[in-house]
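Q: Hi! First time asking for a complex rather than a single chain. Here are the components, and I think there are two in total. Is that enough to go on?
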Amino acid sequence: MRILKMKPDFLKEFLMGLEGFGALYGPKRQSGILKYAPIESYDELVLDGENTLLPLKRLFHPMRFDMFRFDSRGFEADYSIFEKRVIIGVHPCEIHGILKLDEVFLVHPPDPYYAGLRKNSAIIGFSCLPAENALCRSTGTDIVAEGFDLFFVDLTDFYLVWVGSSFGYDMILEKEDFFDENVTHEDIQIYIEWREKRNRMFKKSFNFRDMPDIIELSYKSEIWDYFGKKCLSCGQCTMVCPTCNCYNVTDVLDLATETSGRRERMWDSCMFADYSLVAGGHNFRHARADRLKLWYTHKLKAFAHKYGSPACVGCGRCVETCPVDINVLTVSEALTSCEVPEE
Amino acid sequence: MPEYKPRVGIYGFTGCAGDQLLIIHTEDRLLDFFNAVEMRSFVMASSNPLETEIDIAFVEGSISTEEERQHIKEIRDRAGVLVAIGNCAVSGGPQAMFAKDGSFARRLKQVYGDIKFITNPVEGAPLDEVVSVDYYLPGCPISQSQAMALIARLIHGADPEEFPHPVCHECKLNENLCLLLDQKFCLGPLTLGGCHSACPNNGLPCVGCWGPNPDGNFEEQLGLLESFGIPHEDIIRRVRNFGGYKILAHIEKLSGKR
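A: Yes, that's all I need. Here is the structure of the assembled complex.
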C-alpha cells in the first residue's frame, strides 16, 4: 500500500476535484443533525470526530425503496438508486461496519442492490479523535487496513494519505502535484505520537474480547429480564447500529389489476413485536427480554461464529441513542459483574 | 362474462371526516380505485348511495349516538368485511378521552344542558365496542399510502399487512434526534407509526394521535416521563387524549401494580 503526504492547504481543492469520479457525499449538518448527504460545497463537510446520527449503512442499505415492479409476465428490478458516488469523511469504525455488511450482503448470492451501490461508491476515509462514547479501541476497529480507496490521517501540519485501491490511485494522479512520496523518519515519529495521544483520549471501554463467552454463559441470566422490563422497543438501537442489516419486504399491489404491483423494502428491527412472528400467530420472541437477548447475542457472539469476529464496531451510537440506557456498555457491564462470580 | 368487482361502501360516523376526505384526496389513484370496485355508498363523493349487501365496508368515526349504534350494526349485517379506518373508529378518538370514567352523564349535561336530543347520545366508542371489526387502519388521518395498500389488498382478495411499529421506527429513518433524550414529553414509543413521524420531523413531540401501539412499554415510558418532572396525571391525560378505549387496558394494568 502506498502512503503519501499532503499539505492541508490542498485538501479543499483535492476533495472538491473528486467530483469527476462521482457525486460527492459526506457528513453534513442539516437542521442541527449530522447526516451523510450530498455535498455541494467544501464548507458543508464535517470532518471532525462526531458521529452522524445514522451510520454509513444508510448509503448502501437504503432505508426504504422499491426493489422492483411486477406483473403477470414477471418482474423488472429497479436499480434507479445506483449512482456514482465519492463518500468523503468516513471514520474507521464506519469502514469496519461496511466490511461487516459486505460479509452479509456480498456472499453468494449477493444482494444486487447493496452490491450495485457498493461497486459505484468510492470511500475516502478520515481519521478522527475519540468522541465521548467512542468504544472502537475496545472493539479493535480504531484503525483500518482495508475498505477504503483513500484514507487521510490528519496530523495537523500534514496529512498522511493511505492509497487503498487502484481507483484511489487514479484520484491521486488527477492532482499528483499535491502529494509528496517522501515520508521521513520524522513523519513516522509524528504519526506514532498522534496514535499514542489518541489512544490516551478514550474515556470509555468495555470487555469486548470476553463477551462471546460471557453471553453464552448468561443465556438464562435474569439480567435479560431486567433490561427487558426497561426496553421501550422503539428500535432506535438497531437503526443507528452500523452493522444491523435486517429489512422487511412488502408487496404493494396496484389498485387496477390484481397481478401487478411493486415490492418495497424497508429497514426492520428485531426489537419490534412482529419481527419473530410466524404463520399461525406464533411468536418466538414475544418477550422484550428475548428480543434484547437475540440482539446482543447476535451482535457480540453469534456474528463471530459465522463471520470470524463480533459485529460491534464500537461507534458508541447505541450509548448515545437509547432513551433508557440499554447499550453495549450497560449490557456488557451487567453481564460481566452479575453473572460471572466476583473476584 | 364481465369481471366481478367487489361492492364497496365507505361510511362516516362521529369524527372529522378527515379519513374519507383523504381517500378523495388521493386524486392520482382515485380513478383506479373507483374502476376496480363497484362503489355502492360513499356519501362524501356521491349523494345517491345504494344501501345493499356489500363485500367491504370502510368505516370512519366513533359510535356516539343510539342511532349510530343501530346503523353500524345494520352495516355489519350486510358487509362481508368491515374495516375500521382512522383513530376514532379504531380507538374512539378524542371524543373517547374520558371513556368509562363515569363522568359521561355529567359532562353531557354540562355541555348541552337540558335539551331534547334527536337521537340519544352515548359515550363515544370505537366500532369494536359495538360490532366485530375485521381489519384496523389507524391514523389521524389515515396515511394515503397505507390506505391504498390496504384497499388494493382487500379488493384483490389478499390479506392486508399490518404495520405494528412505533412512531420511532419512521422517526429514526427520518434522521430525527430522539426527543426523549431532550426530556421532551414524547409518546412516540407508545404510539402506532405510519404517520412518517410528522410531528418529530418538525421538532414537536408525538402526542399519540394514531392511537396506542399494543407493544408499547407503558409502565417504563411513564416512569421515564415522570423522571423528567412531568406529573403522572398529565401523562395519563395526554395518553388518553387519543388513546380512547385502547389505552385503558394499559392504564388498568398499571394501577393494578401501583
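A: The longest strand of chain B covers residues 54-60. Let me know if you'd like any chain examined more closely.
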